[in-house]
Amino acid sequence: MPIYWTIDSKQQLVVVTAEGDVTRADADDYLDAVEGGGALAYRKLYDARAGNVVMDHDEMMAVAFRIRNYHDQPVGALAIVLADNVAELAKRMLGILATADRPIKLFTRLTPAQRWIDSLAPVQ
User: Fold this and answer.
1) What CATH number does residue 11 fall under?
2) Beta-carbon contacts of residue 68 (< 8 Å; ≥ 6 apart)
3) ∠14-5-74 over CA atoms, to 5°?
4) SS3 81
5) How many whole angstroms separate alpha carbon 2 and alpha carbon 21?
6) Does residue 124 belong to any structural domain of this protein?
7) What is the pLDDT along the chain (124 residues), one digit of tens a residue?
8) Domain range for 91
């Protein structure tokens, strides 16, 4: 599986790393784990610099729709780290994620993303 995550209930933080080709099934597995682990409201640090999304338009929209359905619940802040060459293209997708009532920020380096997510209080 190219998506790895750690759900830390004490820190109320989910740390996610994508490596290699990420499919819709991979994204669904991650979302199942976060939802099943009661971590939707946790802060999330998603490092996708080494990941490559291999979903077609319909699959991407299905994942986006699923994420959007969480927006009627408390969802935690999201820091996304992307490689420089894909960060600009990803801004459109981030528009869907940003409709939730939560802080969201895009980074191209991990350290500033970690600092930012650590500076935010967990959702109560």
Assistant:
1) 3.30.750.24
2) 96, 99, 100
3) 30
4) strand
5) 6
6) no
7) 699 999 999 999 999 999 999 999 999 999 999 999 999 999 999 999 999 889 888 998 898 888 888 878 888 999 999 888 776 666 666 665 556 677 888 899 999 999 999 999 776 6
8) 3-119
